Each structure stands twice: as C-alpha cells, then as structure tokens.
Amino acid sequence: MDVLAVPAFDDNYLWIIHDGRHAAVVDPGDAVPVLAALQAEGLTLAAILLTHHHADHVGGVVELARSAVSDEFPAIPVYGPAREQSRIKGMTVPLHGNDEVKIPSLGLSLQVIDVPGHTLGHIAYYSPQEQLVFCGDTLFAGGCGRLFEGTPAQMVESLAKLSSLPGDTRVYCAHEYTLSNLKFAAEVEPGNAELSTRIQRERAKRDQGEATVPTSIALERATNPFLRAKEKEIQESLQKAGRLTELNEVSSFAALREWKNTYR
C-alpha cells in the first residue's frame, strides 16, 4: 500500500492511499488536484475519508464524489465524524470513535479514534496493518492543532491516544508546519539533543523541496513539546516566561498552546 501526498493551498497535504489500482482520499479540501493525481496514477476512487469539518479539508468533497464515480463505484462513500455531519456537505457515512471502516477493494481496515480539541468532532483513522494514522489537524510534525472548539483537557487526552500508538506508526498530518513548530519546540526545550538533530534534518528536506511528513509516533514523543508537557525543562521554560501557574500536564499544555498561538 502506498500513500501519495497531494499539495494544496499554501501548506495542505491531501492524502491518497492506494494499491496501484484503487484509492481512498483523506481530507480533499480541493477536488481539482486530487482528480488530477488520480488520473495521472490511473487510480479508481473507492472512498473518501474526512477528519473534521474545516473547509480546507472538506471543500472538494462534493465535486470529487461526483466527478470520480466509475462503473465499479457508482456511488462513492464519504466517511466522516458523526458529530459534524450537519457541517459537512456530501458526507454519507457518519462515524464514531471505535468504529471500523473497511475498504474491501484496498483490503484496508481503519480504526476510528475520537480526537476532539481542534474541533469537537475531530476523528483520526488508524491502520495497525499498514502502521499509519491519518490525524488531520490534531497532531502535527512537531506541534498540534489550535483549539478552535475544544478544551486543553480534551486535546491532552486526544494527543495521549495518538501518542499511545506503536512508535513505528507513520503519522500523516494535514499541513507542512514542521519548521515553524520545531523552532518553537527549541525555544521551550533547548536542551533536547534529538530535537536539535531533527531540526537540521527537516531543514535540509525543505531546502530540497521535500515534505517533512509523514513523521512517526516515536519521533513525536521524543521531540514534540505538546506530547512532552510534563517534561521538567519545558515546565521550567513556561515558568521563566511567566506562563505557568500550576504544575500539571493540562496547565502546561494550555500554556504551551497559548504561547505557540502568538509565537513568531
């Protein structure tokens, strides 16, 4: 099974998972580049998977579902979060946490994980078989999504769910935010040697025009401050900045997220 990145807008990645014949598309914010990629690769669309309702993730759903129909798939199922169904045009299969999505033409089974925080209904799709997770705007390479609807406590729990996946799980997030995220990470945990090495490696990728995604759960555990909010050095950085009043994980996370929101 292969995963193809389709760049869109300023920094989005729209993901196509395929076996060389059939494909599923994750978060098609724009149908045009996805349709072009499907045609270029000779792929037949079997399913659309959505993580949350934001326009840059669902804006192309209706056009894609209409334009990519085939004799084999005259009606393309559009999976997405049940809690956000009223906010997503074209969604046909509402999902809840612990549901399973089966795409027979790909021989693919995906577990649905509830990950509220960025939005209240946000979900992720995890395949133990393929060792990958599509997590939308919940977990980023070196960072996490803003809390537009959820609470810090919800996001801490959601990130913990993702962090508990096997370390070799490949993480397919939806944006190329890595260098700016790691710049902030180095601000709050300057003594992290693995983080310093990662920054050099990811900068070299971007200089060559390469994507820094996918990342891995193990790498995020080691270098992502939003998964490391309980680390002593991070909490000391927050205290020095006058941003931490209580020494617990949720307070540390909330302080990190507020700081990152205005960090340049």
From TrEMBL:
Cofactor binding: number and manner: Binds 2 Zn(2+) ions per subunit.
SUPFAM superfamilies assigned: Metallo-hydrolase/oxidoreductase
CDD domains from the UniProt entry: hydroxyacylglutathione_hydrolase_MBL-fold
Zinc is among the record's keywords: yes
GO BP: methylglyoxal catabolic process to D-lactate via S-lactoyl-glutathione
UniProt: Zn(2+) 1 binding residues: H52, H54, H118, D137
EC numbers for this chain: 3.1.2.6
Cofactors named for this entry: Zn(2+)
Entry keyword set: Hydrolase, Metal-binding, Zinc
Biological pathway: Secondary metabolite metabolism; methylglyoxal degradation; (R)-lactate from methylglyoxal: step 2/2
Record-listed Zn(2+) 2 binding positions: D56, H57, D137, H175
Gene Ontology molecular function, alphabetical: hydroxyacylglutathione hydrolase activity; metal ion binding
Superkingdom, taxonomy of origin: Bacteria
Reaction catalysed by this enzyme: an S-(2-hydroxyacyl)glutathione + H2O = a 2-hydroxy carboxylate + glutathione + H(+)
Enzyme class: hydrolase
Stretches assigned to the Metallo-beta-lactamase domain: 11-175
Free-text function comment from the UniProt entry: Thiolesterase that catalyzes the hydrolysis of S-D-lactoyl-glutathione to form glutathione and D-lactic acid.
Subunit-level organization: Monomer.
Family (UniProt): Belongs to the metallo-beta-lactamase superfamily. Glyoxalase II family.
Alphabetized HAMAP family for the sequence: Glyoxalase_2
This protein's name: Hydroxyacylglutathione hydrolase
Lineage, top ranks: Bacteria, Pseudomonadati, Pseudomonadota, Betaproteobacteria, Burkholderiales
